[in-house]
Specification:
The complex is a heterodimer of chains A (377) and B (250). Chain A is mostly helical and 377 residues long. Helices cover 67% and strands 3% of the residues of chain A. Chain A is built from 20 helices and two strands. Chain A has helices at residues 3-7, 11-14, 16-19, 25-30, 40-44, 46-50, 55-66, 87-109, 115-122, 125-156, 161-176, 179-187, 189-192, 211-214, 217-243, 246-254, 259-289, 301-312, 315-345, 354-358; strands at 195-199, 205-210. A two-stranded antiparallel ribbon of chain A has the order 1-2. In chain A, β1 and β2 form a beta hairpin. The longest helix of chain A has 32 residues, at 125-156. Chain B is built from nine helices and twelve strands. Chain B has helices at residues 40-47, 79-87, 104-114, 120-133, 149-161, 179-194, 206-212, 230-235, 240-249; strands spanning 2-11, 14-24, 29-33, 55-60, 63-64, 67-70, 73-76, 89-92, 167-171, 199-202, 215-220, 223-228. Chain B is α/β, with parallel strands linked by helices and 250 residues long. Chain B starts with a strand and ends with a helix. Helices cover 38% and strands 27% of the residues of chain B. Chain B has a six-stranded mixed β-sheet with strand order 8-9-10-3-11-12, with helices on both faces. A four-stranded antiparallel β-sheet of chain B has the order 2-1-4-5, covered by helices on one side. The relative contact order of chain B is 0.17. In chain B, α3 packs across α4 (120-133), α3 runs parallel beside α5 (149-161) and α5 (149-161) runs parallel beside α6 (179-194). The chains are: A mainly alpha (377), B alpha/beta (250). At the A-B interface, α16, α17 and α20 of A face α2, β8, α3 and α5 of B.
């Protein structure tokens, strides 16, 4: 019933028909209120400034006491008032500007910053290699975290108390200890278990390998960051799953779908709307957290910078160069997150379903007003 | 088709069904009436294995609901078996419960493709046919959020019918609809009844019950208070509880 409003918004702001015959404007806009309510009031306003103000208002006053419904269609003068003065804003602005200029001047003129050196090292091959390692590590650790996080979240909802309990304990442990401690712990795992072997529990051994092969820095970093991330992702995914209406599961059950099918086909796709934004945050966070791996001598961006300044003592310059790259990468992630959130988040009230995005269909379905759109109540 | 003998259902200490006995013949349309909290919806949910029966016997098409009987002992059904039973029973919910991330057609073909392993092309063909029967031929690519409540509920009916069920359960299918949209849904249900579908309908639409139902059952406080042809129960209710309810509803 409200579709015409959504389908034809143009007549409102354009308002060419109303400007032609000013006399016919007001009465016409009162009658078809249900047809095009949006176009009525704005269209009738433009003639107000041009037309003589005396005629219509008088008739409006006469009609007022007699029959109330016609409403305030008569032209009204546009409001021109003197704004409130806000001296505080000017003062605050001036102070901020002064501080900022001082800071910029000091940074620009202090020769010890040696911006030229910063520039030289921006594209140093060791730095660039470090950037690459940081990206690889971030992507791999997030991927591991997301996959394991989904598993943990599903386990957490299991009816089996041992399964859900173990998920709880995992999350409790990995969220409760610093990621740096976990990193150093995994780095020293070979002290606890010099040999890792795979076999039947309490039975024969199938094969084994030296723990040192597993403790290559990249593997350790991936293990530590990924396992830690999984604990956080599990909570994010769990929140997403909880956000999906119980009726969805019941409807799928009544169609004869199995539990795994329901999770994969019905619940998780809808949970994505809730899962994606915080996952973006986690990715940005992971990019920076990954700098901790310099503690275990993995040649990421920060470690590369440290290696260089250990030799030439240009500490500040190399940290600035590294910061430049971190800022660039997080900025790119911000852009990506912004777009992801727009596509998933507009699901909120009335957005398109996530599947439309998953299939790369960017068409935004128009919503009809007045109805709870997503989970219909 | 459905046979209940002294069915009991408890939620904690609250006894929602307190000995329901009724019989639904194949092709019969039964309307369940009663105040909210009388156990109508719970009975429907029990028939579709969404709830477990605590006592009594409930069977659909001669097979016990939720259990397998062998040599005098009851064995609980495994998930796959329950899913198989559910696939033969269609259910329509008060709040539609369409899958919002799928188009109308995708909603309809999801179960035939995933559960019945029907070829996609065949499922699409059948799905379009069903949508057309519901008067929604042009809405196949619309997402639920783009449909009115009445259209959504008709997609939900098509979705349930796509599994070719032998029994259809309707849980207050028109209660969440604007009054002007109720008619389309009731018309679709009327056609379905005319085609000989066995239906159990929980509803407050006494007009629909009078016109379509073969049997009307009035429930209150977990028991069947009165049952009979709509002409008797709705026009000349014998039980004071039924009289009181109908005088308030009509």
């Amino acid at each position: 019933m409200s579709r015409p409003q959504a389908d034809e918004p143009p007549p409102g702001p354009g308002g060419p028909p109303a400007s032609g015959p000013p006399a016919s404007g007001p009465p016409a806009s009162g009658a078809p209120a249900s047809g095009a309510p949006a176009s009525g009031p704005p269209a009738s306003r433009p003639p107000a400034s041009g037309a003589p103000a005396s005629g219509p208002p008088a008739s409006g006053r006469q009609a007022g006491p007699g029959r109330p419904p016609p409403g305030p269609v008569g032209p009204a003068a546009e409001i021109r008032a003197v704004g409130v003065r806000r001296p505080g804003r000017w003062i605050a602005g001036a102070v901020v500007l002064l501080v900022a200029l001082t800071l910029v001047r000091s940074v620009a003129t202090n020769p010890r910053f040696e911006w030229g050196v910063v520039g030289d090292y921006l594209l140093d091959t060791r730095i660039l290699h470090g950037v690459l390692v940081t990206i690889e590590l971030t992507v791999a650790a997030m991927a591991a975290g997301i996959v394991l996080g989904v598993v943990l979240a599903v386990m957490r909802r299991s009816a089996n108390p041992l399964v859900s309990g173990s998920s709880w304990i995992y999350i409790w442990f990995f969220r409760g200890t610093p990621v740096l401690v976990q990193l150093l712990f995994w780095n020293s795992i070979s002290a606890l278990y010099p040999r890792l072997s795979v076999g039947v529990p309490f039975g024969p051994e199938l094969f084994s390998l030296d723990a040192n092969t597993l403790t290559k820095p990249f593997v350790v970093a991936l293990l530590a960051l990924g396992l830690n991330e999984a604990a956080y992702m599990a909570e994010i995914v769990r929140a997403g799953i909880i956000s999906v209406d119980e009726g969805q599961t019941e409807a799928a059950q009544s169609l004869g779908m199995r539990r795994l099918q329901i999770m994969r086909r019905i619940v998780l796709p809808q949970a994505m709307r809730v899962i994606v934004p915080p996952t973006g945050n986690e990715t940005i966070s992971m990019l920076k957290t990954s700098s901790l791996v310099s503690f275990i001598a993995l040649a990421d961006l920060l470690y590369a910078a440290q290696q260089i300044y250990a030799v030439n003592y240009k500490i500040i310059q190399l940290l600035l160069a590294a910061s430049f790259w971190y800022l660039l990468m997080t900025s790119l992630l911000y852009v990506g997150q912004y777009h992801l959130e727009r596509r998933f988040g507009r699901g909120g009230p009335g957005g398109p379903p996530p599947a439309a995005w998953l299939r790369g269909r960017l068409r935004r379905p128009r919503r009809r007003a007045g109805r709870p759109p997503w989970r219909t109540g | 088709m459905v046979s209940a003998v002294s069915v009991h259902k408890r939620f904690g200490r609250l006894e929602v069904l307190r000995g329901i006995t009724l019989e639904v013949a194949p092709g019969e349309v039964m309307c369940l009436l009663g105040p909210s909290g009388s156990g109508k919806s719970t009975l429907l949910r029990c028939i579709n294995h969404l709830e477990k029966v605590d006592a009594g016997r409930l069977s659909v098409d001669g097979e016990l609901v939720g259990y397998r009987e062998s040599q005098g002992r009851l064995y609980e059904l495994r998930e796959a078996e329950v899913a198989g039973k559910r696939a033969e029973i269609g259910m329509v919910f008060q709040r539609f419960n369409l899958f919002p991330h799928m188009t109308a057609l995708e909603n309809v073909i999801e179960a035939p493709v995933r559960v019945k392993r029907l070829a996609r092309s065949e499922a699409v063909e059948r799905g379009e046919e069903l949508l057309a029967r519901m008067g929604l031929a042009d809405k196949r690519s619309a997402y639920p959020a783009q449909l009115s409540g009445g259209q959504q509920q008709r997609v939900a009916i098509a979705r349930a019918l796509a599994m070719a069920p032998k029994l259809m359960l309707f849980d207050e299918p028109t209660s969440a609809l604007d009054p002007e949209l109720v008619g389309d849904v009731l018309a679709a249900m009327r056609r379905l009844a005319a085609e000989g579908m066995t239906m159990i309908v929980v509803t407050h639409e006494t007009g629909f019950a009078r016109e379509v139902a073969d049997t009307v059952v009035f429930m209150d406080d977990g028991v069947v208070v009165e049952r009979g042809a709509p002409g008797e129960v709705l026009a000349n209710p014998r039980h004071p509880r039924t009289q009181a309810f109908l005088s308030r509803v009509l």
